[in-house]
TrEMBL record:
This is Tripartite tricarboxylate transporter substrate binding protein. Belongs to the UPF0065 (bug) family. It comes from Achromobacter veterisilvae. Keywords: Signal. Residues 1-23 form the signal peptide.
Length: 322
């Protein structure tokens, strides 16, 4: 009995020592950050801004890898299969953690199967049009769509992404029939919009507005409940006759389920410090993204709040499951 107790005590002591050593040494090598969209898009740019600053706190490089496609499912599935050691994390969006569970019959990952590092930020979308189309306002666009049902197309970041949901919500609110054309991200969708291969696109402010400012696309409205401080002249869709129109993209960091607590704590600390950095906050606001707390509690709340809303929208819009 005494010998058994001694062995148990020794095991506990060794376990505690191992955890302490891990906490002291993590991270001891570079950390991989998976961006589930192509390089150059708003999500990718945001990921790189945060990774660069977090690396300073962690004392190790954070290397961003792009694994785009299937509404973030490819990147999410990759991270879910990685070792839960704190050396691979994912930039997860509302598509990853909420929408995909209602959109796909089968997913290559479990939306609830990640350790939540924290909430990053929230940003609205802008309604863009091809410069080759005859309409010059949301009102003109809706009138044209009603006169030509099923002839207009809208590009998106991919099935189930915020741009897809924005398009479906706009269809429902405006009472129009426009066709969904999915891409892997803005870097593919924008050239198609500019060339006239597609007619409309709900894009992030960071990638859409530079093209609008350059005269390469038309911009009609923004999807947030109120105007952006950085784009004060851009009207909301609510102001244009679609009350309570609210569709945003949000961003978070997660890790494989089972990632040790010491690693999670250091990642959470690095994210929180990064989101308090004035230079980072300014860059995010310039992108049209409102920085958030960086806490897992806020991410949990965001997921729980949005699930019933997205589920209902998908049912109302009759989006066919993949």
């Amino acid at each position: 009995m005494i010998r058994t107790s001694f062995k148990l005590l020794a095991t506990l002591v060794l376990g505690a020592a191992a955890l302490g050593a891990q906490a002291d040494t993590y991270p001891s090598r570079p950390i991989k950050v998976v961006s589930p969209f192509p390089a150059g898009g708003a999500t990718d740019v945001l990921t790189r801004i945060l990774a660069e600053r977090m690396a300073k706190t962690l004392g190790q490089p954070m290397i961003v890898e792009n694994k785009a496609g299937a509404g973030t499912s490819i990147g999410a599935a990759f991270v879910s299969r990685e070792a839960p050691d704190g050396y691979t994390i994912l930039m997860a969006t509302n598509s990853t953690l909420v929408t995909n569970r209602y959109l796909y019959k089968e997913l290559p990952y479990d939306p609830d199967g990640f350790a939540r590092i924290g909430m990053v930020g929230v940003g609205p979308l802008v309604l863009l049009s091809s410069p080759k189309r005859p309409f010059n306002s949301t009102q003109d666009l809706v009138a044209y769509a009603k006169q030509n049902p099923g002839k207009l197309t809208f590009a998106t970041f991919g099935p189930g992404t915020s741009s897809h949901l924005a398009g479906e919500l706009f269809k429902e609110r405006a009472g129009i029939d426009i066709l969904h054309v999915p891409f892997k991200g803005a870097t593919q969708a924008l050239p198609a919009l500019i060339s006239g291969d597609v007619d409309l696109f709900f894009d992030m402010v960071a990638t859409g507005m530079p093209q609008a400012d350059a005269g390469k696309v038309k911009v009609f409205a923004i999807t947030s409940p109120s105007r952006l401080a950085t784009q004060p002249k851009l009207e909301t869709l609510s102001e244009q006759g679609y009350p309570s129109f609210d569709m945003t993209a949000w961003f978070s960091f997660v890790a494989p389920k089972g990632t040790p607590a010491p690693a999670m704590e250091k990642l959470q600390q690095a994210l929180a410090e990064t989101l308090q950095d004035e230079a980072v906050k300014k860059r995010m606001l310039d992108m049209g993204i409102d920085p958030r707390s960086g806490t897992p509690a806020e991410l949990d709340k965001q997921i729980q709040t949005e699930q019933p809303i997205v589920s209902q929208l998908i049912k109302q819009a009759n989006i066919v499951l993949q």
